[in-house]
Amino acid sequence: MNALTFESKPAWDTKDWQLLEALQQDARQGYAELGRKVQLSAPAVAERVKRLEEAGVITGYRAAINPKRLGYDIEAMIRLRCDGGTCARVGQLVVGIPEVLDCRRLAGEDSALLRVVAMSIAHLEDVLDRILKIHSSISTTTLIVLQTSHENRPLTLAMRNAAQLTQER
Amino acid sequence: MNALTFESKPAWDTKDWQLLEALQQDARQGYAELGRKVQLSAPAVAERVKRLEEAGVITGYRAAINPKRLGYDIEAMIRLRCDGGTCARVGQLVVGIPEVLDCRRLAGEDSALLRVVAMSIAHLEDVLDRILKIHSSISTTTLIVLQTSHENRPLTLAMRNAAQLTQER
DNA sequence: GCTGAAATATCCTGGTG
DNA sequence: CACCAGGATATTTCAGC
C-alpha cells in the first residue's frame, strides 16, 4: 500500500479540466466541437462529461441572464446580522422573496449576505422591508453594486496548478 | 402619439419569460423540448431565443461547477476598503488572482466585495496576501461562507409581476 | 409562426489497443 | 479500461407558405 493507493482515483486530468473550462465558457457547444478543442473523439468527450456530471463536479447548465436588460436596474448586497436561531434558517426565511438571488450564511462579522435585484429604489425599499419583516432580530446594511467587474469567473487548470504549489511549499 | 407609442417594443411576453425560466434551469435542452414546454414550434423557439441573445438578455450559457468537488473546500467573501483611485480599478487589479471568482465595486460602507475560493486555510491566507499586496491602502474583512442556501436564483415572470405591483401602488 | 426537408449532432453498439 | 468507428435516431436549420 503506497502513496498511489490513495491516488487510485486519478482525480481529473488535463483533458477533464479543459472540458470544464470550455463548458464554463459555453455550455451549449456540442461534443464534436469540444472534442476538437481537447483533441478527443465525440464519444470520449461524452463519457468524460457524464463522469463529471455524476461526480457532482458539473451541477447543471444555466443560461446567464443580464437583469438590467429585463428592467432590474439595481443590484445590491445586503449584509445581515441576526440571532443564532434566525441565522440558521436564513435560507428558508428568504426563499419567499424572489428578488433575493443569492443567500449565504457566514462566519464572521456578518451573519449572512444576500444579493438582491430591484427595478427601482422604491422596489429595493420594498424588498428590504420584506427582509426586515422576517424577524425583529434582523438588522441590515445595504450596499449598492456600482459595477460587477467579474462574475462567476471559471475555475481553471492554471488556478489548480498554482494552488498545488501553495500546498507544497 | 399615445402611451402605447412608448410601449411599441412590447418588451417580452409570457412565452419569452417561460423560455428564460426554462433556460435558466437547464441550458442544454433542445428547441424541440423547449417548444413543448411553451407550446411553440422549434423554429419559433429558436427565433425567440436568438432575439433574447441579441438583445443582451441572455449573455451566455455556462456549466455550473461545484468547487468543493474539485478540492476547493473553502469559500469566502472578502470586504475591501481602499482609497478612491484603487477602488475604481479593483476589477483590473484582481484579474490576476484567479481564486477571485466575483468582484463588485460597491457604494456604501465597503468599497468592494470579492468572492474567493481556496483549497485550504493556508491557501486562503495566500490569496489574502496577494490581495493585500495590490496596494497599501487596501484593508480587508474576510468572512467564511458556512452555507450557500441560494445561488443565482432564476429571474421569473412571477417576480416581474410582483415588481409591477410595487411600482404601481 | 407553422410545416417539411436537408444538414448536423447525438447516442448506442461493437471493436481495438 | 479507455478510446475510436459506424449506423440509427433525434435535433437544428432553412425553405416556402
Automatic annotation (TrEMBL), chains A, B:
Tagged with keyword Transcription regulation: yes
Gene3D superfamilies: 3.30.70.920, Winged helix-like DNA-binding domain superfamily/Winged helix DNA-binding domain
Highest taxon of the lineage: Bacteria
GO CC annotation: cytosol
Coiled coil, from the record: none
Keyword tags: DNA-binding, Transcription, Transcription regulation
Name of the protein this chain belongs to: Lrp/AsnC family transcriptional regulator
Source species: Dyella soli
